Amino acid sequence: MSMRKIYRKVARKNGVSIKEVKEEMQKALDYAYTNTPDDGVTEAYQKQVPSKDEIPTPYEFIRYAADKVK
């Protein structure tokens, strides 16, 4: 399934736009990456997600998660 279809399906299910889905996902990622506990474990897992910046985009995160599930 393409990313576009995933976003569309989530948006329809929740009665919001695709843009809102992406924005909320980014907010969640931003929060998760800026409010990590100082245990070192969470940060180590976060560093495994390949991204251009310190915080991955929803696309980068979903792609990583999907590859892990396979």
From TrEMBL:
SUPFAM superfamilies in the cross-refs: C-terminal effector domain of the bipartite response regulators
Record bears the keyword Protein biosynthesis: yes
GO terms, molecular function: calcium ion binding; DNA binding; DNA-binding transcription factor activity; translation initiation factor activity
GO cellular component: cytoplasm
InterPro entries per the UniProt record, alphabetical: Sig_transdc_resp-reg_C-effctor (IPR016032), Spo0A_C (IPR014879), WH-like_DNA-bd_sf (IPR036388)
Ribosomal protein among keywords: no
Sporulation initiation factor Spo0A C-terminal domain ranges (all copies): 4-69
Biological-process GO terms, alphabetical: regulation of sporulation resulting in formation of a cellular spore
Keywords on record: Initiation factor, Protein biosynthesis
UniProt xrefs under Pfam families: Spo0A_C
Superkingdom, taxonomy of origin: Bacteria
Name of this protein: Sporulation initiation factor Spo0A-like protein
Organism, scientific name: Alkalibaculum bacchi
